[in-house]
Amino acid sequence: MNRPSMVRAHQQVLIDHPKHRKPSNPASRLSRSLSNLLHLHIETPQRSHLSCTNWDLVCQEKQSMPVMSPKEDISYMWQQLHGSNDWHNLLDPLPPCLRREIVKYGEFAQATYDAFDFDPFSEYCGSCRYNLNKLFEQLGLTKHGYKVCKYIYAMSHVNLPGWLERSHWVDTWSKDSNWMGYVAISDDEETRRIGRRDIAVAWRGTVAPSEWYEDFQRKLEPIGDGDAKVEHGFHTIYTSKSDSTRYNKSSASEQVMKEVTRLVQLYRDNGEEVSLTITGHSLGGALALLNAYEAGKSLPGLPISVISFGAPRVGNIAFRDELQDMGIKTLRVVNKQDIVPRMPGIVFNESLERFDDFTGTLDWVYTHVGSELKVDIQSSPYLKHGLNLAGFHCLETYLHLVDGFHGSCSTFRSDAKRDVALVNKACDMLVDELRIPHCWYQLANKGLVPNAHGRWVKPTRKPEDIPSPCS
Amino acid sequence: MNRPSMVRAHQQVLIDHPKHRKPSNPASRLSRSLSNLLHLHIETPQRSHLSCTNWDLVCQEKQSMPVMSPKEDISYMWQQLHGSNDWHNLLDPLPPCLRREIVKYGEFAQATYDAFDFDPFSEYCGSCRYNLNKLFEQLGLTKHGYKVCKYIYAMSHVNLPGWLERSHWVDTWSKDSNWMGYVAISDDEETRRIGRRDIAVAWRGTVAPSEWYEDFQRKLEPIGDGDAKVEHGFHTIYTSKSDSTRYNKSSASEQVMKEVTRLVQLYRDNGEEVSLTITGHSLGGALALLNAYEAGKSLPGLPISVISFGAPRVGNIAFRDELQDMGIKTLRVVNKQDIVPRMPGIVFNESLERFDDFTGTLDWVYTHVGSELKVDIQSSPYLKHGLNLAGFHCLETYLHLVDGFHGSCSTFRSDAKRDVALVNKACDMLVDELRIPHCWYQLANKGLVPNAHGRWVKPTRKPEDIPSPCS
């Protein structure tokens, strides 16, 4: 049986099974087809049951608790928390001060989803719903003490399935580009607490990478002057530009590097110590790594870290080695049950016996970089443990698991304070006993409001929130 | 091939066809299986295209228009509009004053959906979200000049698939009953305009009746003292009660008749002319008919009309004849493409050649009663015309079509004023050019709000909106 027909046979089995006939969104559809393609046998373990959990009590107690512990001063050890020693002895057990930092950057990445306009009937589909001065305020993130300085937009010259959100309108803010992330800077108070002026870059992900699975197989392309190669799809999003567009006359790469360079100079001229921390989930984690590679090349001496969540592999061994040689530190947060971090290259790397005909391409092999913080769905008593590949991959699931993580041999932290309800914003992972609806993050009436005549209309955006190529 | 195996064979075909593997809610699932069971071949006609429609212009013009025409005095002809002459010469063409009345009662029926708590994680799932003094205000229906007097609750002793909405909570407002409708009374101003004090009863429907199709085949049961028989499922919802429940110590029938009788006496004692108008959509239309039958028996001389939307057949010929003999007038609004009004009994009545073995049961045949106002999806340039059985059956689709109806040979009224956006509240029927999201009627964050600590919680209901058996 050759591979395509094997795939078809497996897909057939999947489709004929009643369990797989239920409603599917693109994410769950692709995860199903993936789990099949990749011959994954995800365990569906029993609930690690809290004996006689009184959920009503749990709910009540949680509700009267603040969502954050008091912040502590980490200025004396920021380099270690930033990975200077590759987080050696800092991940298992995980100290609270590092946990807080990981969650902070994770919430910066989450903001790129929460503020994104996904509505195809909006003329601003694919943009950020708020201008950069309001973003953190609208999302309740001012508590972290950063200020957004610049929005990043990306396009792609290659037709990558499902990554670009497009408006149905002819007359739209942009036909080619999507809001892809932002650059932020720590304010004076946070700078004092964390011991340096921190430039944070957050990259938006999509559910798309797994849809590119078929394309992924051999499409590595060179980056830099050496043998380093990276996945073609990620690279094209990072570097594409076109004079005929409004938002990508310069590429995402050029936009982010220009702003980061400006900030580094500004604060160094001010005599301050400066760091760069790049974060992203899924595709966003891949872009973060490309961004770190470029920053490492053009800003030598700058402490650079990547904190990624559920990110796929990006490049080959030479790419990893170059990152290491430049001193770029990467902390990959990986959920054991999430399949995206095993892509692409899972077939090459983990099933070599099975596809002997492919071993000739081993010099192209994809590899992960840096240190790994492994979390596990099974550790949390709040989560359903049944197969839910979309839920396993959700960033909010990751943030919940990090919040509850103490060490690989410890149970879920009983004093974890982050709001558990957030997990279900865009998936259905919480146990029913918590009574949190699934996929609850939604606008009232999908944004329609009654006008003066009582007609339901989509309000025009406030002028200050209309995207502009200059922000 | 006997019938069951034929059905299975058809179902198999349905399941194997890729078109039928897409996301499905209960409504679309059942409509698919029905269209198959009933050997329906719904036409999927071409759009009746407005030549060169400038949708932007259409949208703009609509938005600056009031949603209602001025009201006119109908006191001099209310009996005819109430069906005294079986709406003879009043349906084709349809005079504006009757159209307004039909839409008014339709909006009363729509209120039973719009205010219903469908959330299984709500402890008040299955109740009305507002108390009766706030209902019309919350839904923007005070314009009609009625006041809600009484809520009606229903239960069923028989296990009817999918009709009862249940809370996941153990400690819920009611385990057995659902809010099923209400009684309202015209205020003084509206009473002057319409020429009599009008008692309106609105019954909530569900998508369930079509799920009972299999049960429907022979389960007629006697009603009254003669040969009249009605469908068992409808009758059990209308008449079930149990001392062990909080809301159905008396049946829906007893609740509604007690309130209607009280109101009739109150206003007759006041020397006023009184009418009863009962409305409902789908299952609600069936309950309206049972309600009218009972009111006809116990309140002789009271002018009683039923205005139903997409209602299934309810009883046999003797049932119809008794209704006629009592002078009960029924106006059935039927959308040509909606299959629910053809149920139950469609197999008996329309495919006799096919199921010869069943013709022995013809004395049990279900039949429609009263006058029919037939509307047609194809008449509206705002609607998609592709197969969408759930959308064809939606009450808002009906109200849109009535609003645009002038006569069977006329095009959609260009001066129809009702807000077209309402159609898509719970379905996907509007052409994309209108840019109205589908299924847009939804709460912000599914009702979750951040509490004082920033945690997302379901707020407890306002005390005045907590259901009570006394309201």
Features:
homodimer, 471 residues, 13% strand, seven-stranded mixed β-sheet, alpha/beta, Rossmann fold, two-stranded antiparallel sheet
Notes on the structure:
- The structure is a homodimer of 471-residue chains.
- Chain A is of the alpha/beta class.
- Chain A has a single domain, classed as Rossmann fold (3-Layer(aba) Sandwich).
- Chain A is 31% helix and 13% strand.
- The first copy, chain A, is built from 15 helices and eleven strands.
- Chain A has helices at residues 3-16, 26-37, 55-63, 78-81, 96-114, 135-138, 188-194, 213-216, 232-239, 252-269, 283-298, 317-325, 346-350, 389-393, 395-404; strands at 146-154, 178-186, 197-203, 220-222, 229-231, 274-281, 304-309, 329-335, 371-375, 449-450, 456-457.
- Chain A has a seven-stranded mixed β-sheet. Chain A has a two-stranded antiparallel ribbon with strand order 4-5. A two-stranded antiparallel ribbon of chain A has the order 10-11.
- In chain A, strand 10 (449-450) and strand 11 form a beta hairpin.
- In chain A, helix 5 runs antiparallel to helix 15 (395-404) and helix 9 crosses helix 11.
- Chain A is globular and about 60 Å long.
- Chain A binds chain B through residues 15, 21, 23-25, 62-67, 119, 121, 140, 168-169, 419, 421-422, 432, 435-437, 440-448, 450-451, 453-458, and chain B through 15, 21, 23-25, 62-67, 119, 121, 140, 168-169, 419, 421-422, 432, 435-437, 440-448, 450-451, 453-458.
